[in-house]
Amino acid sequence: MTVPTQQYSIVARTKGVAQLVPDALIPKLRDDCVLVRTQAVAVNPTDWKHIDYVTQSGKARPGCDYAGIVEEVGANLSRPFKKGDRIAGFLHGTNDDNFDDGAFAEYIAAKTGVAMHVPDNLSIEEAATMGVGISTVGQGLYQSLQLPLPGTNSGATGTILIYGGSTATGTLAIQYAKLSGWKVVTTCSPRNFDLVKSFGADAAFDYNDPHCAKNIAEYTSNQLTHVFDCIGSAEAVMICANSIGPQGGKYSTLLKIKDWPRADVEVLYTLAYTGIGEPFTKAAYGGHIEARPEDYEFQIKFWDLAEKLIREGKIKPHQHIIGQDGLKGVLDGINLLREGKVSGAKLVYRVADTPNISTTRSHSSAASDRTVSQIPRLFSPGGRRPRVSGAKRCTGHPATSQPHSRTSVSSTSSRGPSSELGYRPPSPPGSKDGHRRQRPPLGFNEDSVATAAAALVAGGSQLAVPQTSGRSVDLSWGLRTRQQQRRYMSMPAVATPPNSPDWFKKAQGPSIFEIFEKSQPTTRRTFQFAHAASAMPKNPKRRVALETADEFLSVQVGEDAYFVRSDAMGVADGVGGWSQYKGANPALYSRKLMHYASAEFEKLDDILDSDYSIDDYNNVDPREVMQQSYDQTNADMAAAKILGSTTAIVAVLRDDELRIANLGDCGVMIVRNDEPIFRSEEQQHSFNFPYQLGTGSRDSPKDAQTFSVKIQEDDIVILGSDGMFDNVFDDDIVEIIRSVVQSSGTRNRTSVDPQKISDALLRRAREVAEDSRYASSPFQTRAIQEGMYYQGGKMDDVTVLAGVIR
Ligand SMILES: NC(=O)c1ccc[n+]([C@@H]2O[C@H](COP(=O)([O-])OP(=O)(O)OC[C@H]3O[C@@H](n4cnc5c(N)ncnc54)[C@H](OP(=O)(O)O)[C@@H]3O)[C@@H](O)[C@H]2O)c1
């Protein structure tokens, strides 16, 4: 690829102001650098801090984290790279001493001592999250605190407190400390307890709990000696100081602190920029700082080790969210960090998504392309599908007292604008907090959906759909798929058509809980979900409301909402047909329903300290949870005179049993060893008119189907809104999971990253949804079976939850 003479780049102009400019110069290639065509960049707190408080030149380029492709190679590299290599690493962003530094540009000069070859098991977006974190953890844990390097089996072991475990630095530090053989205690918000434990933390404590230090001291039997502080606030200092035992120890911080209260503890401070081995001047950091070649030497070895550990799957990236608009979006991301609106996730931007970027420059992510091409495409690449003879065009349903249509199928032109893939909301709350939290009923406010929490941007790159001419579409494919499915379904075979309203009631038989209680064995394995969520609203410009600590326990995605915990999951899909009714808010309805369902499970989190018994915990019934949340949601909606309705599914894990209550057309699928062992069916009054819960609805949780499925370690549970199940055939869900498992290089599914599964399914669902011409979709198949003419996928909000049983 020819390197252009000018490029898009962000420049820090004046205090607090950064701009994207189209005519920045390409950096000069220095001997110790490679020229990198960036594909993805990630945002760090240091970016906004430099823009607001540090840089003075008006010309420096911000950005420290990058991943991309090597285009040119300097003469004297610290670590070997060649043209075409995938590379990720750390740069000195917003460097007033060298305006060529900084990651937020199409082409950058990268020093190879603080970079790695991106291993095959890492996407380019994941790789972009790691640069600052790796360098920082190297300095903080190993240069400063002198922990033994992973694999060396030398040096002391003990317990370390990683303060701020849910930070991007913290999740890496937890993993490294564990690899070094240390026990890890950490602090974060309760909503991130599951997150930090999934990275290996042995115990997590809420830093907002006034007894936090006391609890840590008790947990560590007053023996704590080492602290790595990723926050550095005055409160952090006090908690860290009071957690260390009476014997004293070492405290290493990433931010310079004013006062340290204990003389028996050595205070250490590191600054990642010294790891690059070059001098720099920053008035805010005390003026001129000499080069530290020893720091760079350490980093060269540390990055060598990091590359190996990542390739071996021993170090995993922080969660990430892909924002829209590439380098332009980075400016939004900087602002979100500045406003403290990002929790437990890293914001990543794909350079190719930058508006107006030259089409002759290819910044597309090789990793994403590869992921897509690994998944067999379900659309026929070419040829218009044959018109179905005798089919009538679907025009939706006649008006009734309650809107019921899931989506208009009257015209493919009703779909939203060509949308972008890639939004990935962070995991919602719902972890076991270790103490009971009382949640007041949600305050009601028309705008609460929009204002409830941080609104993170949706987006990502568009996936190219190959449109070569060729085969025609086999219309019986979907039907065959569903017949295959039925073999695996636990629903009994029935002679009456599924569209009959009583079908599910008849088919369902006695409550599974009655059966379950009688047959409960005495010794059973206890499992949890390693879980992840991927979701995208129908209209990508529509904001996604995340939870806040004191408000919702659910995440909203368009009119979908979900919650996910290590023992339960739920998805609700607000019925879009309400949009024509004044005072209706189906999005709020679905979000409240999921909030209250999650709150029902939260009540059982600490039965020792609550009104609930172990029997309540053991016997929790998802249909009863649905009933409770339905009652509370309806009460709220009635008080606020707001209308709405939703479909919903709730699943809970107890021991080795997954209990499910499903009402409407959300769904669940369980996959074992590349085979579907269970799949729920839609409940519909008629085609495209699902059962639903709502203000004045004729259906209620009593109508929900209930299932009980024995699960095993390694099973993979997928919950989704109809945005997924209407667009992705069951066989393809299985195939996509198989492909993700295979590409993760392990036969042991328990170590597969559920995020990769949910991402891949979301990607497929959006791919099909956006294709109104060539895709074959389950929704299309059913429409055709109903004698209606419908082509392609169905544009809808898509929510995918993945749980790997561990
Ligand atoms: N010296 C260096 O070389 C160096 C290098 C890297 C980073 N840093 C600094 O280290 C800090 C962390 O950076 P990062 O990128 O790892 O962070 P990050 O991922 O942006 O951190 C976000 C997390 O910080 C936690 N948090 C925010 N305010 C907090 C508070 N007052 N007390 C406790 N936790 C709080 C939140 O956790 P919960 O949501 O769980 O509450 C949130 O999830 C930043 O200040 C950064 O500038 C310094």
What report would you give on this structure?
Strands 19, 21, 22, 23, 24, 25, 26, 31 and 32 form a 9-stranded antiparallel sheet that branches. Strands 3, 4, 5, 6, 7, 16 and 17 form a 7-stranded mixed sheet that branches. The protein has 3 domains: 6-130 and 277-369, Quinone Oxidoreductase, Chain A, domain 1 (Alpha-Beta Complex); 135-270, Rossmann fold (3-Layer(aba) Sandwich); 375-486 and 526-805, PPM-type phosphatase domain (Phosphatase 2c, domain 1, 4-Layer Sandwich), CATH 3.60.40.10. The longest helix is centred in the middle third of the chain and has 19 residues, at 293-311. The protein contains 21 helices and 35 strands. Helix 5 (193-198) links the parallel strand 9 and strand 10 (203-206). The site of NADP nicotinamide-adenine-dinucleotide phosphate has 28 residues, from helix 1, helix 3 and helix 4. Pfam families: ADH_N, ADH_zinc_N, SpoIIE. This is PPM-type phosphatase domain-containing protein. Residues 543-805 form the PPM-type phosphatase domain. Residues 357-444 are annotated as: Disordered.
